[in-house]
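Handover notes (outgoing to incoming on-call)

Open items:
1. Cytochrome c-551: sequence verified, structure written out, both below. Nothing else pending on this one.
2. Nothing else urgent.
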Amino acid sequence: MRTIITSVVATAILIIAGSALAVEMPADVKAKCGACHAMDQKIIGPSFTEIAKKYKGDKDAAGKIIANVVKGGSFGWNLGSMPPKGLGASDAEVKSASEFITGLAK
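Cytochrome c-551 structure tokens:
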């Protein structure tokens, strides 16, 4: 009986820990970027985790992402070309998205 209780408790802890580690895409990022980008899979553009890996360790990663999103382009991904500011994101939304993406690399 003790083994069963221990197993149930351990399973519950793992489930809770796994849920806590899941990263949710902020609503504004999802609204403006989610049609072409997902957290961990390529849709039309690269996933946010792929973008984060590309810029990991770059101290100006957020600035580079902002500059790329504002001007639009393919950025070396060979997946097509993103229009400037994606789906019409404001400067504040672009900044929020870039900070979110760079935060995934930590």
